[in-house]
Amino acid sequence: MGSKARIGFGPLLFHCVLLALLVASSHGVIVGSSKGGSGSLARCNLFQGSWVYDESYPLYDSASCPLISTIDFDCRKSGRPDTKYLKYRWKPDGCELPRFNGKDFLERMRGKTIMFVGDSISLNQRDSLLCLLHAAAPNAKFKRSYKNPVTSYRIEDYNITVSRCLAQYLVDIVPEKIGNVMRLNSVQQNGQIWLGADVLIFNSFLWWNRTNPGRPWDYIQDGNEILKDMNHTEAMAKALNTWARWVDSNIDPKTQKVFYFGLPPIHLFGENWGQPGKTCVGQTEPLMARTYPGGPIPQESIVRGVLGSMAKPVYLLDITFLTQLRKDGHPGRYSGGDCTHWCLAGVPDTWNLLLNAALLEWN
After folding, report:
1. Do the strands 4-5 and 225-229 form a parallel or antiparallel pair, or are they unpaired?
2. Which one is catalytic: 72, 74, 119, 338?
3. What is its main location (predicted)?
4. pTM to 2 decimals?
5. Residue of 33, 62, 120, 128 marked active site
6. In angstroms, what CA-CA distances link 20 with 73, 98, 170?
7. Per-residue pLDDT tens for 56-109?
8. Active site includes 341?
């Protein structure tokens, strides 16, 4: 089987974004509230607002949560001495984000499976939800299981399963004689895993920016072509369209809810928030701003375009802007300078409050 090299990481970005804007519509994507919802949140964009200091935060003590999968997320345990980053609550403009009621969430989700699909950011969010639920039901039994690529916790008292499926690119990566091949037009393998979930939260972004070290594929299959590489933004757009076709063909909106997690920012380049030469390391407060100086992430338009072209409803958890403001929320120097992942307790708890609000409103 022959291969071609078609490498490029930037020149097609403008064209991909323009195409996404041209095809965007309101068929599939729901942003901020239920489409046509009548509740108080339906008139409020949950993703526009500001971070406010709140002494009642955090929502749980990480030292009391045994479900955090890596010490890298547990910044207090890793030695971070400051605590102010734990005390910020997201306040949408024009409404209040419902405070998390773990007991109510457990009752509403009784008998259901919640699955986070994506990379380590999905793991970050899954661990946050587990800690929120453990704080609400500390005596409940959380039983862990693992079947590659899924790690699950079954909350036995409520028959709830909270899972994370590792699928950094969403599309299938299959072993072939030449090596591991990422098939941009296939989710047949991964999709079989997703079918049994009642609530699905998909995330795919950070790994599209990675070069060779650590990535799980050797070649990309684009249609009938096997490529050594290609423009990663173009590849991301094609993969998302493949995923969207799977959702449209396989999801029953009457019984299943699908969310797409917005693009998570990193904080490696201080010029994006007015501190050239700085990173997240040493940051102790959010950026208090109505817009992010570094601007939106260009691929956001691709996500909106794909979601907008879908027949089935997908709720966009549009966390990018509110998370861009939280340069203080990373493990930083207490995990090798990590400005990608997030401390628990911390910012991912707000992502789950937004997920909870969406589930409350989207009936």
Report:
1. parallel
2. 338
3. Golgi
4. 0.90
5. 120
6. 34, 33, 19
7. 999 999 999 999 999 999 999 999 999 999 999 999 998 999 999 999 999 999
8. yes
